[in-house]
Write a structure and sequence with these properties.
Elements (H helix, E strand, L loop, with lengths): L13 H30 L14 H8 L7 E4 L4 H8 L2 H8 L17 E2 L2 E3 L7 H14 L5 E6 L6 H13 L3 E7 L2 E2 L2 E2 H4 L4 H6 L4 E6 L3 H18 L3 E6 L15 H10 L1 H7 L3 H22 L19 E3 L9 H15 L3 E5 L23 H5 L3 E3 L4 H13 L3 E5 L10 H11 L12 E6 L24 E4 L6 H11 L4 E6 L15 E6 L5 E6 L7 E4 L4 H16 L3 E6 L1 E3 L4 H10 L1 E5 L8 H11 L6 E5 L9 H7 L3 H16 L6
Parallel strand pairs: 1-3, 1-4, 4-5, 5-9, 8-9, 11-12, 11-13, 13-14, 14-16, 15-16, 19-20, 19-22, 22-23
Antiparallel strand pairs: 2-3, 6-7, 10-17, 15-21, 17-18, 18-20
Helix pairs in contact: 1-2, 1-3, 1-12, 2-3, 4-12, 5-6, 5-15, 13-17, 15-16, 18-22
């Protein structure tokens, strides 16, 4: 037999426990019987997927909720049934949910791991919910409402880096958050002795966070420490970490269990609820009878409810557009100044706006000289708006997660990632949290999170600071991707995002554009038009009464190079090109491209980044789906690592000369091919 982590076999006084903790015991038994029923239903094929039970750990959630206020926020994990039942008492909605019925708490969409109720949310990614809880706690601290956030984690999460990013920030910013570690000594099938080095308490205290410890075999200690932990967070408005030793009596999920059977039996006998049920006292029998009736009713209700069997796919976002002449703004400012102006205006109007990111503060008590962002976008905003413009540690994943939590709590967060190359560190928070939250709970949930970052090369920064990585974000449901260009005022774009966006928005600010002034010059021989969309598409075409020869598609920082190439092609070769440049690239409205190629029958797509399985690939697929056969189709992209050498980089990235040569090549090929005309 494996040596138990706690050798004391405490026999409990059932009558005394019922007298002192009746409500906690009832809730805990409700959780246990509910999960036992779920395992039965799973074995009968009435529940699909997975069921992570907390049998053996039920007292934790039941003790916690006795200390919570109505608007305290529980952020749970994959093993969250107990937390949900303790918080809501809603077993009817829970059974319907795990049985895939439209009457479920999330209408059958979320299932076992993804639950949403009043100030309760859960998700199944280990550690991924901790920065969400921190963001909620941060919003509470800003609003000074004395509410707290609770983040549940298991011992397996101690191996996740996102946890330590979050602990560090919570300690630094003194956020009102309680971390509860349900330490059952096993991460799925792996013992903690094989996966953890060091000491939990020392790790936590290393971040300046108060640590408390207890277990689930001593009710007096558990309830006392739980109360103390909640009071520390609420009264001091500081974080606290409560480690609770416990034991999971059932498998990780369904039937996958490789633990020693004698060990499980030993802990089962030690378990407080097991001893209470075994007492067969009249009070316990009455209690269990009532619980069983509630569960039977909940299961019957779910069984008689309609199955959630139809999930709509994404709708077609392509709509016809009309063009109007582009209004040239009389503005003589650089792009970074215009972005700054938009933020200064928006922040002065809305106290719920907040921006976090690395090195974005102007001055503070630790540094006397001014900074204001690596590309001087935020400038003195931190001086003007104090705590609403905040420097963060180098923790991309955590700060995006905190942004999501801020959004959940009613704030309007903007997160700056210093270089777009670093967005890879935050992929999980974007893909599995922020964007999923919008629709995975059976309802539309507003997550007005803005992530802004500089991308692109031409600055000599080399392989890991010059990339255009937007292709990795394309197609993510509920994520809008916007690429700023040097024609459309970025202040207008950010005001539109603020007014209209309720889902996460990713904004690409090309590095070179920061130093460019907004281009309010006409393009000789061409007319510039834009659509009436919220995020306009530019169309630049010849003023002459002649059909365009080639459609050239680009976006973002590439517009300047494309314009120069198109002008040169017209002046030197009399090749007439039409430029299509959208601002919103995900979801992409294909109609402006379709309209243009219906005339030219030839398409050249320019992308600064890797163009394998990228936006150009999607465009070509959409064209093929329409049954359109182009007479010529070519692409320019960068499918190698970007060098540090400034000369090599400029020659590699799409530029005026390489684009012009490709235009000329397409034109000449068509001249030599009668089928091209």
């Amino acid at each position: 037999m494996v040596q138990p982590m706690n050798n004391n076999m405490n026999l409990v006084n059932v009558e005394e426990l019922l007298n002192n903790y009746r409500d906690v015991i009832y809730t805990s038994l409700l959780i246990r019987r509910s999960e036992e029923k779920m395992l039965q239903l799973f074995s009968e094929g009435k529940i699909n997927g997975t069921v992570h039970t907390c049998i053996g750990q039920e007292l934790i959630g039941a003790c916690l909720v006795k200390n919570l206020h109505k608007d305290d926020f529980i952020v749970s994990n994959h093993r969250g049934h107990g937390h949900y039942i303790a918080r809501t008492g809603d077993i009817k909605g829970l059974f319907a949910e795990v049985m895939g019925r439209i009457t479920g708490v999330c209408k059958g969409m979320g299932g076992s791991q993804h639950l949403l109720a009043h100030h309760y949310i859960s998700n199944g990614i280990q550690g991924g919910m901790t920065p969400i809880a921190a963001g909620i706690a941060m919003a509470y601290k800003i609003k000074n409402n004395k509410n707290i956030a609770i983040a549940f984690i298991g011992d397996g999460t101690l191996g996740e880096g996102i946890l330590y990013e979050t602990l560090n920030i919570c300690g630094l910013w003194s956020l009102p958050i309680l971390f509860i570690l349900e330490n059952n000594s096993y991460a799925q099938s792996t013992s903690m002795k094989q996966s953890f080095s060091g000491n939990v308490r020392k790790r936590v205290e290393g971040f300046g966070i108060k640590y408390l410890g207890t277990d689930t075999w001593n009710m007096d200690s558990l309830t006392s420490k739980m109360s103390s932990a909640v009071n520390i967070v609420r009264n001091n408005q500081t974080p606290c970490f409560l480690e609770i030793e416990t034991y999971r009596l059932k498998p990780h999920s369904k039937g996958d269990d490789n633990r020693d059977k004698e060990e499980i039996l030993w802990y089962s006998k030690k378990d407080i609820l097991t001893q209470i049920v075994a007492s067969n006292s009249k009070d316990v029998t009455t209690c269990l009878s009532d619980i069983n009736k509630r569960i039977d009713y909940a299961v019957e209700f779910a069984s008689n409810s309609p199955i959630f069997d139809t999930c709509k796919n994404a709708s077609n976002t392509s709509v016809g557009v009309s063009y109007e002449n582009f209004s040239f703004p009389e503005i003589n400012k650089r792009i970074n100044e215009l972005i700054y102006d938009s933020f200064r205006d928006l922040f002065s109007k809305d106290g719920n706006l907040i921006m976090i990111g690395e090195d974005i503060e102007y001055q503070n008590q630790f540094t006397t000289n001014s900074y204001g962002g690596a590309f001087k976008v935020t400038k003195n905003l931190s001086k003007l708006f104090k705590e609403r413009i905040k420097n963060t540690p180098i923790s991309e994943a955590a700060i995006v997660g905190i942004g999501t939590g801020l959004a959940l709590a009613g704030m309007k967060p903007i997160v700056e990632i210093m270089f777009g190359d670093f967005i890879t560190l935050a992929f999980d928070q974007i893909i599995n949290h922020a964007t999923k939250f919008c629709s995975m709970f059976g309802q539309e949930l507003d997550i007005p999170l803005v992530i802004r970052t500089p991308m692109g090369g031409r600055r000599g920064y080399g392989p890991t600071h010059s990339q255009s990585l937007e292709k990795y974000l394309l197609g993510i449901p509920n994520l809008s991707i916007i690429a700023l260009n040097y024609r459309i005022n970025p202040a207008d774009i950010y005001h539109t995002i603020y007014m209209e966006s309720s889902n996460p928005t990713f904004v690409i600010e090309n590095k070179v554009l920061y130093t460019r002034k907004l281009n309010n010059n006409e393009m000789l021989g061409f007319s510039i038009q834009c659509t009436n969309e919220a995020y306009p598409t530019l169309r630049i075409r010849s003023n002459y009464e002649m059909l365009s020869d080639i459609t050239v598609f680009c976006y973002g920082g590439m517009l300047e190079e494309v314009e120069n190439a198109v002008k040169f092609a017209f002046e030197e070769e009399e090749i007439i090109c039409e430029i299509i440049c959208p601002t919103l690239i995900n979801p992409l409205n294909i109609e402006p491209i379709i309209s243009s190629i219906s005339e030219t029958q030839k398409l050249l797509i320019i992308e600064e980044g890797n163009n394998i399985a990228a936006l150009g690939s999607e465009i070509s697929a959409k064209i093929a789906e329409r049954g359109i056969t182009l007479k010529k189709f070519k692409r320019i992209g960068v499918n190698v690592i970007i060098p540090c050498s400034f000369a090599a980089e400029n020659n590699l990235l799409p530029n005026k000369n390489s684009i012009f040569l490709k235009i000329k090549e397409m034109h000449n090929e068509c001249k030599d091919n009668s089928n091209c005309h």
